[in-house]
Amino acid sequence: MSSNITFSGISSGLDTATLIDNLISAERSASDTRISTATSAANAKISALGSLKSSFTSLQTALKTLRSSDTTQARTVTTGSGAGFTATTSAGTATGSYSIQVNRLATAEKQMSVMQSADTAIGNAGTITFTADDTTFDVSVSDTDTLSTLASKINKASGGNGLSATVINVDGGQRLVLSAAKTGSEGAITVASAGNPALTSALGFTITSEAADAKVTVDGQTRTSSSNTLTDLIDGVSLTLTSVDASAHTLSIGADTSKTANAVSAFVTAYNSVLSTMKTVTAFTPGKQGTAGSSSALTGDAMVRSLQQQLRSTLGDSVTDLKAIGVTIATDGQLTADSTKLTSALTSNPDAISSLFSADGNLGSSLDATLNSVLDSTNGLIKQRNDNLNATLKDLEDQTTQLDARMTKLRAVYTQQYAAMEGIVTQMKSISSYLTQQLKTTSSSSSSSSS
């Protein structure tokens, strides 16, 4: 049976356990230092690449917004005070003004029955045919039905199409109300009972709100509609009629220069952040006289230098176009946007931003290609660098595992060697003790003989 119990320096008096620990420490010190230094450097680079990725992603988002037609062709909509309509528009809608007057709103028809006492039977039987908005259905009525049970039968038969029925409780009793599902003349309600006209006569439906189409005049031209929402009256404009106008009001559609200007400012901020981040992660601080300087995680990194050059080159090729919209490039590459010049440029030429950032072959497309090469989740530069650094970290972990295994074996060798030494020392002490005893015995015998 083996045992891991050792007795340090029992014979020699040496602290062999501490000696072995010191020998192991000395043996692995250089490797530990190398692995630790390499691990710290790799982790620092991964962190720096994370900062770069974050800033480049923000720039990509700002550029995407700036290249979108929802930004470069955004529109504003204004209407005259008190107008009987509201309007929304989509990006790219033609700018211009329109004179609009709402002459009539589209209404849904309602019919109401004669008054009856609550829960009183109608007292007539037969089949009633209801029609509304091209939907026709029959309801079978028994002479024991009340207005409430008839309403339930109507709603079940219609399934929500054409019309619905409800009972209102008022002073003196109840009334059955029929409501068309849609506005406009096509939603007019007809109620007929061919087999028993007395049934419909007993119910006595009358129109309380007549079905009517909306009527609106645009620049002197009249249009009717079954709905109060018109999406095809003016290209790109959704018009919602809210009230009848006593006179015409102006609807104006213009370029939303403020939205575009804000997007340009956001782009400038994001671009400058990228430059600042690259400067930070590659910075080198010279040391004082006689001392070494300090480097950042990516000081002298070829990939970052290449990206800095690409960005400078891409924007440098468009310096004139950028200046035309109030954006200038400083000597350190940072951008500055003059809000006054930018607003003026957008007012005089609303398509300037779209031409610069959205057109193929211009600044926007070139910069987008550069950002994609950096941020692509499969083959992007940052993804590849991170993969390589993670592989390096894995290799360093493997080296640590191998070093631990080698040191375990070496410790066993040292332990065995010192144990052997202790054995020899023990034997030597035993021999020394024996010889000493023998000498004492011999000396004693000689003294006795002389006497």
List keywords for this structure.
single chain, 451 residues, alpha+beta, Alpha-Beta Plaits, 3 domains, five-stranded antiparallel beta sheet, four-stranded antiparallel beta sheet, disordered N terminus
Describe this structure in words.
This protein has helices at 16-67, 69-72, 147-158, 197-203, 257-281, 302-316, 319-324, 339-348, 352-357, 363-375, 381-450, and strands at residues 75-79, 85-89, 96-104, 110-112, 126-132, 135-141, 163-170, 173-180, 190-192, 206-209, 214-218, 221-225, 229-234, 237-241, 249-255, 284-285, 294-295, 327-329, 335-337. The chain contains 11 helices and 19 strands. The chain has 3 domains: 7-74 and 256-284 and 295-426; 75-104 and 214-255, no CATH class; 108-209, Alpha-Beta Plaits (2-Layer Sandwich). With 451 residues, the chain is α+β, with helices and mostly antiparallel strands.
Q: What is the rounded distance between the termini?
A: 58 Å
Number of strands: 19
Regions with pLDDT < 50 over 5+ consecutive residues? 1-5
Figure out the total of helices.
Answer: 11
**Order of H and E elements:** HHEEEEEEHEEEHEEEEEEHEEHHEEHHHH
**Overall shape:** elongated
Question: Which percent range describes the beta-strand content?
Answer: 15-25%
Structural class: alpha+beta
Mean pLDDT: 90
How many separate domains make up the residues? 3
Helix content: 40-55%
CA gyration radius, whole angstroms: 47 Å
- Main β-sheet, spatial strand arrangement: 1-15-3-11-12
Largest sheet: 5 strands, antiparallel
What does this entry show, briefly?
The protein has 451 residues and is α+β, with helices and mostly antiparallel strands. The protein contains eleven helices and 19 strands. The radius of gyration is 47 Å and the shape is elongated.
